[in-house]
Amino acid sequence: MRRASLLCAAVLASAPAAADDAATWLLKISDAARQANYQGVVVYRDGQRMDVMRLVHRQHQGRVQERLTSLTGKARDILREGDRVAFHAGDEPVRSPEQQSLFPVLSRELLAQAATHYDFQDLGLARVAARPCRGVLMSPRDEFRYGYEICGDLVTAVPLRVTLLDRRGRTVEQLMFTEVAFPEHIADAAFTPPPGARAVGVPPVAATPGPAAAAPDTWQVVTLPPGFRIVRRSVAPSPDGQGLVEHVLLSDGLSAVSVFGMRPNAPDKVFRGVSNMGAMSAYGRRVGSFHITVIGEVPVSTVRMIGDGLAAPATPDANEPDAAQGP
């Protein structure tokens, strides 16, 4: 259900041209995307495939609840409450809810950070899902981030269409409502886990917020693309339960990139090199005794620069490859 993460961009853009008006509208979009009740059918396409999903969203007793159910392809059903709980049915794994948050909280600080690297253009009125919306284009000023074309509902401020664009203006991904409603109340039954669903909890982590330095025996973030900074650094058990995975979350205020580092049990089977599918890019390489994976909805140039900008511990483990070793 990664495709639904396109909606996170929508809470960050759909504004008039003037900077002050844009900031006010973006904050309104952010609030509406989290607090409003809405449900409908959304279509996702990335140029290679198209998926159709049903989305139900509400804020209940101060917590966000949402459900995504696939209507085409493999049967997938994901439910989320707040930031920490998810369910899924079928055989497709669900990533951490922290990585899949559809509508991140937008503050004036984050908006100002993003505005440093994007130009805003008012696109005027349009019509999506039989409703009027106002569009805005966010054009990146360099090659390290995608552009966003967003149309926000004029009445509710909920995003109706989000398009990711490359530097040539070509569509990378698009998510669009084809049907949408804004009911005053949504029944609890809409968020009941389906039979056979499994709960996916986020394990407790030792988190270090902000750009704090890492421990001396782990890899270091040395070079980042312009505007990106460390938002969070945390440690959690590895999927096989045999070790720990360190996660560094990077952001420029709009785009987010995750860097995962672990000591693999089977180094010859880990992902190395570059991969790209739709808007998602990934880069894997060896840094000292750690295998690093950089992944995010950003261009390939961004994940490669971040991955190549990591450094090994000051005192590498004995018998381990040199830190400068690439994929």
Structure, explained:
The protein has 327 residues and is mostly beta strands. The chain is built from five helices and 20 strands. The strands form three sheets. It has an eleven-stranded antiparallel sheet. A seven-stranded antiparallel sheet has the order 12-14-15-16-19-18-17, with helices on one face. The radius of gyration is 20 Å and the shape is globular.
Distance between the termini: 28 Å
Principal-axis shape = globular
Strand content: 35-45%
Number of helices: 5
Could you list the spans in which at least 5 consecutive residues all have pLDDT below 50?
1-17, 93-104, 201-216, 316-327
Radius of gyration over C-alpha positions, nearest whole angstrom: 20 Å
Output the strand order for the largest sheet. 6-7-8-9-10-1-2-3-4-5-11
Main sheet makeup = 11 strands, antiparallel
Average pLDDT figure: 77
Structural class: mainly beta
Strands, total number = 20
What's the helical proportion of residues?
Answer: 10-25%
User: What is the H/E string?
Assistant: HHEEEEEHHEEEEEEEEEEEEEEHE
